[in-house]
Amino acid sequence: MIQHIAIAGNIGAGKTTLSELLSKHYNWQVQYEDTSTNPYLSDFYDDMKRWSFNLQIYFLHSRYQQILKIRSGKDTVVQDRTIYEDAKIFAPNLHDMGLMTTRDFNNYQSLFETMSTQAKSPDLLIYLKANIPTLVDHIQLRGRDYEGSMSIDYLKKLNERYDNWIENYDSGNLLVIDVNDMDFKNNKEDLGIIISKIDSELHGLFQI
């Protein structure tokens, strides 16, 4: 049984929107990224250096719990963002930018390595590839106050890490979807293209 479909992508790529649409189409359950109740998120965007470690630990714990719940259940679940993105992209980026101390980063990485031994990789990882103008447009449209202070440089650095991570991803099945010229939220044809690609991947997975 396919239990775990994960959607990865930079901030504003459309992960949550696609998760919702796929949930309706396939009758999957959804595990959302915890942004509405996250106690550190707004503080982080106001002072990244002060709150980076706290935020990353919160996300790491939250997604680890999600994975354990998904794997112990009987439903197919689509997960909005993965535990790998926290450890391979966001935390290293904060460290390299001088926004997380080496001591905190090493502590974080050690915790992730321990958790990852118990966290099975997704049955299918769907990566939403988007350029900076697309990300900025999406971020502005959704109008979250805490994202207003986010810099273009920050998004660029994240995108570079995403590209490198996906190029070297070897933890399971991967589907890359370029969303730069898509509006799958409002255009049924665009959504249909994505669903067709996913159907092809799922057909292969069901044969395993």
Describe this structure in words.
This protein is of the alpha/beta class and 208 residues long. The protein has a single domain (4-206), classed as Rossmann fold (3-Layer(aba) Sandwich). Helix content is 57%, strand content 12%. It contains eight helices and five strands; from the N terminus they run E-H-E-H-H-E-H-H-E-H-H-E-H. A five-stranded parallel beta sheet has the order 2-3-1-4-5, with helices on both faces. Helix 3 (48-72) packs antiparallel against helix 4 (83-96). It starts with a strand and ends with a helix. The mean pLDDT is 91.
Give a quick account of the main beta sheet: strands, pairing sense, barrel closure. Answer: 5 strands, parallel
Give the name of the CATH architecture: 3-Layer(aba) Sandwich
| Shape estimate | globular
Query: Which regions contain 5 or more consecutive residues with pLDDT less than 50?
Result: none
Distance linking N and C termini: 10 Å
Average pLDDT metric: 91
